[in-house]
Amino acid sequence: MNPFALILLAFLAITFLQSGYDKIADWNGNVSWLKGHFSQTFLKNQVPFALLIVLALEIVAGVLALVGMAENIKSGATIIGDYACIVSCITLLFLLFGQRIAKDYDGARTIVIYLIPALLGVYWL
User: pTM of the prediction?
Assistant: First the structure.
Protein backbone atom coordinates (compact mmCIF):
# COMPACT_ATOMS: atom_id res chain seq x y z
CA MET A 1 0.00 0.00 0.00
CA ASN A 2 1.32 3.40 -1.04
CA PRO A 3 -0.03 6.31 1.07
CA PHE A 4 1.04 8.89 -1.53
CA ALA A 5 -0.86 7.04 -4.25
CA LEU A 6 -3.96 6.69 -2.08
CA ILE A 7 -4.07 10.36 -1.12
CA LEU A 8 -3.43 11.53 -4.67
CA LEU A 9 -6.03 9.18 -6.13
CA ALA A 10 -8.55 10.24 -3.48
CA PHE A 11 -7.90 13.86 -4.47
CA LEU A 12 -8.49 13.06 -8.15
CA ALA A 13 -11.59 10.96 -7.42
CA ILE A 14 -13.15 13.72 -5.31
CA THR A 15 -12.25 16.42 -7.82
CA PHE A 16 -13.53 14.69 -10.95
CA LEU A 17 -16.52 12.79 -9.57
CA GLN A 18 -17.86 15.90 -7.85
CA SER A 19 -17.31 17.96 -10.99
CA GLY A 20 -19.00 15.32 -13.13
CA TYR A 21 -21.91 15.12 -10.71
CA ASP A 22 -22.31 18.89 -10.85
CA LYS A 23 -22.42 18.80 -14.64
CA ILE A 24 -25.11 16.09 -14.59
CA ALA A 25 -27.16 17.69 -11.79
CA ASP A 26 -27.19 21.12 -13.44
CA TRP A 27 -26.63 20.36 -17.11
CA ASN A 28 -28.78 23.22 -18.39
CA GLY A 29 -27.21 25.75 -16.03
CA ASN A 30 -23.71 24.66 -17.02
CA VAL A 31 -24.52 24.81 -20.74
CA SER A 32 -26.09 28.24 -20.35
CA TRP A 33 -23.12 29.65 -18.41
CA LEU A 34 -20.58 28.11 -20.80
CA LYS A 35 -22.39 29.45 -23.87
CA GLY A 36 -21.84 32.92 -22.45
CA HIS A 37 -18.25 32.10 -21.47
CA PHE A 38 -17.42 30.95 -25.01
CA SER A 39 -19.70 33.36 -26.89
CA GLN A 40 -16.78 35.17 -28.54
CA THR A 41 -14.87 32.03 -29.52
CA PHE A 42 -15.00 29.37 -32.21
CA LEU A 43 -16.40 27.00 -29.53
CA LYS A 44 -19.63 28.99 -29.10
CA ASN A 45 -21.70 26.50 -31.12
CA GLN A 46 -19.96 23.43 -29.70
CA VAL A 47 -20.63 23.97 -25.98
CA PRO A 48 -23.00 21.01 -25.29
CA PHE A 49 -20.79 18.58 -27.21
CA ALA A 50 -17.60 19.89 -25.58
CA LEU A 51 -19.23 19.69 -22.15
CA LEU A 52 -20.26 16.08 -22.82
CA ILE A 53 -16.68 15.19 -23.74
CA VAL A 54 -15.34 16.82 -20.57
CA LEU A 55 -18.04 15.10 -18.49
CA ALA A 56 -17.10 11.69 -19.92
CA LEU A 57 -13.40 12.30 -19.26
CA GLU A 58 -14.11 13.44 -15.70
CA ILE A 59 -16.19 10.37 -14.93
CA VAL A 60 -13.56 8.05 -16.42
CA ALA A 61 -10.78 9.79 -14.46
CA GLY A 62 -12.76 9.64 -11.22
CA VAL A 63 -13.73 5.99 -11.58
CA LEU A 64 -10.17 5.02 -12.52
CA ALA A 65 -8.95 6.84 -9.41
CA LEU A 66 -11.36 4.86 -7.21
CA VAL A 67 -10.41 1.56 -8.85
CA GLY A 68 -6.75 2.54 -8.58
CA MET A 69 -7.18 3.08 -4.85
CA ALA A 70 -8.74 -0.37 -4.48
CA GLU A 71 -5.97 -1.92 -6.58
CA ASN A 72 -3.31 -0.22 -4.45
CA ILE A 73 -4.90 -1.32 -1.18
CA LYS A 74 -5.36 -4.90 -2.40
CA SER A 75 -2.07 -5.56 -4.15
CA GLY A 76 0.11 -2.47 -3.81
CA ALA A 77 0.03 -1.96 -7.58
CA THR A 78 -0.39 1.46 -9.15
CA ILE A 79 -1.12 0.62 -12.79
CA ILE A 80 -4.75 1.72 -12.78
CA GLY A 81 -3.82 4.70 -10.61
CA ASP A 82 -1.31 5.73 -13.26
CA TYR A 83 -4.04 5.53 -15.89
CA ALA A 84 -6.23 7.69 -13.63
CA CYS A 85 -3.48 10.30 -13.49
CA ILE A 86 -3.00 10.22 -17.26
CA VAL A 87 -6.73 10.63 -17.98
CA SER A 88 -6.85 13.37 -15.34
CA CYS A 89 -4.04 15.23 -17.11
CA ILE A 90 -5.80 14.89 -20.46
CA THR A 91 -9.03 16.18 -18.92
CA LEU A 92 -7.28 19.13 -17.33
CA LEU A 93 -5.52 19.96 -20.59
CA PHE A 94 -8.92 20.08 -22.32
CA LEU A 95 -10.16 22.42 -19.60
CA LEU A 96 -7.01 24.54 -19.80
CA PHE A 97 -7.40 24.80 -23.57
CA GLY A 98 -10.97 26.02 -23.16
CA GLN A 99 -10.02 28.62 -20.58
CA ARG A 100 -7.22 29.93 -22.75
CA ILE A 101 -9.51 30.11 -25.80
CA ALA A 102 -12.03 32.06 -23.71
CA LYS A 103 -9.19 34.31 -22.50
CA ASP A 104 -10.04 33.42 -18.91
CA TYR A 105 -6.48 33.51 -17.66
CA ASP A 106 -7.42 33.33 -13.97
CA GLY A 107 -9.47 30.21 -14.72
CA ALA A 108 -6.54 28.75 -16.65
CA ARG A 109 -4.23 29.44 -13.71
CA THR A 110 -6.63 27.63 -11.38
CA ILE A 111 -6.60 24.55 -13.62
CA VAL A 112 -2.80 24.44 -13.42
CA ILE A 113 -3.16 24.05 -9.64
CA TYR A 114 -5.03 20.78 -10.30
CA LEU A 115 -2.70 19.75 -13.11
CA ILE A 116 0.41 19.76 -10.90
CA PRO A 117 -0.67 16.88 -8.60
CA ALA A 118 -1.98 14.89 -11.58
CA LEU A 119 1.40 15.30 -13.32
CA LEU A 120 3.20 14.25 -10.15
CA GLY A 121 1.04 11.15 -10.14
CA VAL A 122 2.03 10.31 -13.71
CA TYR A 123 5.67 10.75 -12.73
CA TRP A 124 5.62 8.89 -9.39
CA LEU A 125 3.09 6.17 -10.04
Answer: 0.93
